[in-house]
């Protein structure tokens, strides 16, 4: 119960660490309240997006037009104190339109020199709107930026803003003229967030809050420096050894070629999550615990983060797709089995 993972505090967290975590949790509660006043009724979406920022990662938002994805990103930029830019991805968008380019300038004395003009990627929070509408060549311009936080233009490495996050959106139904994201790029998104239709009460609240003479405005709660400090603090949050084992069991159970994988995974899954998925789960369960005002993650955090972290890192085989099998449903079953098995084992040990 009190055991901790290697590399984390072996005893009860020190008072100063507890105080730091509680202070960040209080600011996160303020940030969430400010965001949900403008992005009404989608608490899970807000939690997952904030989790990706706390973990220093990127998020892919999947949802139909008109569900407020752009509004969410704009509000996040203000509340978290980040310099944000937006790019509308289109088939004719070129890599230079994202990264920037060098131009030849002539000085007053007639001398000529190249000057680099920064593209919109040089910011702290980039909204990549309808990312799958750009060509693979343009999509690939984001790969280095998302992984290394630098871009190479004209043979020179140029650092991006700190912190640097990409929040990309994608329409799940209109696929004509789109280019599906390759697995390598999907894997660079920490979480995939499904933005669904609101229920009736939520839609009523949206109508009343957004069609009047005035609207709630977002206010800065964090600064970029405070967010970086929170990201560092997150990695110091202790994680129990049992949670680490739970994460490993879950990720490995989703790989069809793993000996521990259940039969339905071997029969339906073409490719499974890699070590980056386990890293993402390790970070996001901490973020969820912090957003809920707790000092360490619990098994319910692993269960809640399984689908957002794993669903875009797995692929069903042809037979499973033909039957209409669903990745999210499969992940939910596996996670329930893994966590239930741990609970039974703990009960037997007790």
From TrEMBL:
<dbReference type="InterPro" id="IPR041628">
    <property type="entry name" value="ChlI/MoxR_AAA_lid"/>
</dbReference>
<dbReference type="InterPro" id="IPR003593">
    <property type="entry name" value="AAA+_ATPase"/>
</dbReference>
<dbReference type="InterPro" id="IPR011703">
    <property type="entry name" value="ATPase_AAA-3"/>
</dbReference>
<keyword id="KW-0067">ATP-binding</keyword>
<dbReference type="Pfam" id="PF17863">
    <property type="entry name" value="AAA_lid_2"/>
</dbReference>
<protein>
    <submittedName>
        <fullName>ATPase family associated with various cellular activities (AAA)</fullName>
    </submittedName>
</protein>
<dbReference type="GO" id="GO:0005524">
    <property type="term" value="F:ATP binding"/>
</dbReference>
<dbReference type="InterPro" id="IPR027417">
    <property type="entry name" value="P-loop_NTPase"/>
</dbReference>
<dbReference type="Pfam" id="PF07726">
    <property type="entry name" value="AAA_3"/>
</dbReference>
<keyword id="KW-0547">Nucleotide-binding</keyword>
<dbReference type="GO" id="GO:0016887">
    <property type="term" value="F:ATP hydrolysis activity"/>
</dbReference>
<comment type="similarity">
    <text>Belongs to the MoxR family.</text>
</comment>
<dbReference type="InterPro" id="IPR050764">
    <property type="entry name" value="CbbQ/NirQ/NorQ/GpvN"/>
</dbReference>
<feature type="domain" description="AAA+ ATPase">
    <location>
        <begin position="55"/>
        <end position="199"/>
    </location>
</feature>
